Amino acid sequence: MAAATCSADLATLAFEEWLADHFRSGWARTFECSSMQIRDRVLGKARFILDHAQPAAANRRWLCEAVHAWAPLEVLFPTRDYTADCGVSGDLASYLEEIITREYGHVLAGARSVRRTAELLQADAQRLELDIAIAAAFEEAMLTKGDSAWVTHYMTMSLAIAEYLHRQVLGLSQLLSDDAVMRYTAHVSLRQREARGACALPALQLYAGA
Fold first, then answer.
1. Model-level pTM?
2. 186 — phi, psi (to 5°)?
3. CA distances from 6 to 61, 143, 175, 207 (A)
């Protein structure tokens, strides 16, 4: 129970830090009636993880799937300098209109403008980044062996793959060789399969309250 309480406190702290940083939460807050809705939803996810029969396995799956959804958006709306990261340019925003038209037409159809679509995508990215922040904090707290360095490697490879796929759609020159992308993809896919195998629940259940 003490571990669960500690982890619940970690989730609340991560949310409060996210909320206080407009750069991290501004767009997500724009599309919610109140910040309490975001808080209740994400802490509901956290409680689901903590109450799970295998909380560490459930959390790792949540983390893997959140990163998988976040990476394609993060490379479009980068929140930090990626110049030192292999495979991530940080300049895909220059092609944003074309990417939205080609890849996010379903969102564009409802939003009715590229600008509005971009705002909605940024809001999604920020909500996912909050999920990742909480899940990463849980991973560190629940760790009993090994280390949490895999999280950074997984995120870095996911970002590089996401950039590669966007560039493929646009016909741009690639930053990574096909061989490197295949290695990254194999590593990321293995991590995802392991996470799903250790917590064999429908993905929707991991997003209780979403």
1. 0.91
2. -60, -40
3. 20, 13, 42, 21
